[in-house]
Amino acid sequence: MIIYLHGFNSSPQSHKAQHFGREMARRGLGDRFACPKLPHRPAEAIALIEREVAKHAADAVTFVGSSLGGFYATYLAEKHATRAVLLNPAVTPQADLESYLGVQRNLYSGEEYELTPSHLAEWRALAVPVTRPERYLLIVETGDEVLDYREAVAKYRGARQVVVAGGDHTLKSFPEHIPLILEFAGLVSV
Question: Would residue 171 count as lying in a domain?
Answer without folding.
Answer: yes
